[in-house]
Amino acid sequence: MPSPREADPKLQKAIDNVAATVSKTMAHLLPESDDAEDRLYDAMRYGALGGGKRLRPFLVMQSAKLFNVDETRAKRVAAALEFVHCYSLVHDDLPAMDDADTRRGQPSVHRKYDEATAILAGDALQALGFEILADNQTHEDPRVRCQLVSAMACAAGGHGMCGGQMLDLIGETEEFDAGTISRLQRLKTGMLMAFACEAGAILGKADEPHRKALRNYAHDLGLAFQVTDDILDVEADPLETGKPANQDEAAGKATFVSTLGKEQARMRAEMLVAQACRHLHIFGDRADMLKAFAKYVLERRA
Amino acid sequence: MPSPREADPKLQKAIDNVAATVSKTMAHLLPESDDAEDRLYDAMRYGALGGGKRLRPFLVMQSAKLFNVDETRAKRVAAALEFVHCYSLVHDDLPAMDDADTRRGQPSVHRKYDEATAILAGDALQALGFEILADNQTHEDPRVRCQLVSAMACAAGGHGMCGGQMLDLIGETEEFDAGTISRLQRLKTGMLMAFACEAGAILGKADEPHRKALRNYAHDLGLAFQVTDDILDVEADPLETGKPANQDEAAGKATFVSTLGKEQARMRAEMLVAQACRHLHIFGDRADMLKAFAKYVLERRA
């Protein structure tokens, strides 16, 4: 995992801690198998445990902290969400989708194994995510567990991440305006980020104003994240991002940069981050880490 | 949907009724969308609503009836399970998997749309299945909903259906004995069938002996179903099955027929069906329809 250059040391330490601890939980939830279908579990582990910034888990852990949620529970939700995020990356890299040979500088799952194994590994990672949420170790109150399942299914499905990926593909051949790109990104990246932020509130049985504050924060954060992703795609060093530069442009994809230009895109990201931080007012200085994270999104290099 | 030749009229009517009513529930749960990601929902509907025997929904409805479960609830669970079954068919037909150009005599989803759309439609159908189960319209008791999510995730995931599909792929290049083929089929087909049968018991908060009886019935039924599938693959008329004959053999797949021979395979199926029916003893004649269904599996032609 390449280190961001500009994150403040306290935030960087917190991000690193979460990445280490949630990766451990993920490895525990996805143990090596002795069965003949070993190959599937190998591929699932390869796709899910081989690094990654674990930014969504960070949001889960930080939002859970706001409501003093037990850390073991929060880690399970963080892991479940990250498994779903990882499944989407495995499928996204497939030849019929983004056709990416590498991910984080390593061969993508279908290059390391084969396409069929990558399809199945992604499918099984999604099921695993829901299995973890529904388990009573995740929360003793089954209402909370059902809310988690509902919210994650909604964020991941046709009106969420999958819908955004569909728009992304349509965008390869159709011209999108900035509004449609915003919608695309809200679905593709924003909904799962929003679930990450709301998960802590669900686990903590928070009231609606607190949930709403986190949802709004996540909404702006998700967009800012995607705008900076688009900027990174055109200017980043492949050695730092672990993927080739100008991948989106090469694929003919509509991005915030292609639509707004790089300077306007950067201003948009800055505005979104400021707005994201204002939504957290309700939490006072307890949300400082989430605010710092929003600023980090702006300054990251990978 | 080709009609089986030998099903008794009462059973046939019950199967047809469930297929019609659950298909209606599925259409209701997967309405047309006005969004730009329309293409995704079109593909989801194409993959899920275009016919199919709805045998798993039949098992859900019949097992729910044993415990006097409200029909509206049972239909939601039947629909959720069928969406998951349909997602697996959409992915199974992909070029990297079974590479099937047709399904039920119609172009498969990736032939009608494209591969990327088929991958995403499958992914979104899986999420939809879990979203439906977790919704409070499915059952007022959140413990029941969590049990449904857990059981379906377990049946669909790496130690269930996906694991069986992985074994299936490995079987294209490796020699399997009858034991491994049984395990493959138990995972690939049996686990989701077992969930179908157990779902009624979960909805009805049945005690362990009743659940176990249904699980055991499903186990034997699932195997019998697969053995007859293998027999149909070598002898069926493509016009009736809606897919080419000898597809498995052409793919080099290990099947019960290739391992046991057709006559032994048929005897195995008969033995399994008799055994399946014996497990239902605990329900008396209330389970007659499930017993008739097991016999129908043996005699179906498609």
Please tag this protein with its features:
homodimer, mainly alpha, Farnesyl Diphosphate Synthase, two-stranded antiparallel sheet
Oligomer: homodimer
Strand order of the largest sheet of chain A: 1-2
Kindly state the percentage of residues in helix of chain A.
Answer: over 70%
Shape summary of chain A: globular
What is the CATH architecture descriptor of chain A? Orthogonal Bundle
Q: Which CATH C-level class of chain A is it?
A: Mainly Alpha
Greatest contact pair?
A-B, 59 and 58 residues
Could you name the CATH homologous superfamily of chain A? Farnesyl Diphosphate Synthase
Structural domains of chain A: how many: 1
Major beta sheet of chain A, specifics?
Answer: 2 strands, antiparallel
Helices and strands, with pairings:
The structure is a homodimer of 302-residue chains.
Chain A: H1 9-29, H2 38-49, H3 55-66, H4 71-92, E1 102-103, E2 106-107, H5 109-112, H6 115-134, H7 142-156, H8 161-170, H9 178-203, H10 208-235, H11 238-241, H12 247-250, H13 256-260, H14 262-279, H15 288-299
Antiparallel strand pairs in A: 1-2
What does this structure look like?
The structure is a homodimer of 302-residue chains. Chain A is 71% helix and 1% strand. The first copy, chain A, is an all-alpha fold. Chain A has a two-stranded antiparallel ribbon with strand order 1-2. In chain A, helix 2 (38-49) crosses helix 6 (115-134) and helix 7 (142-156) packs antiparallel against helix 9. The longest helix of chain A is centred in the last third of the chain and has 28 residues, at 208-235. The termini of chain A are close together. The mean pLDDT of chain A is 90. Chains A and B meet through helix 2, helix 4, helix 6, helix 7 and helix 8 of A and helix 2, helix 4, helix 6, helix 7 and helix 8 of B.
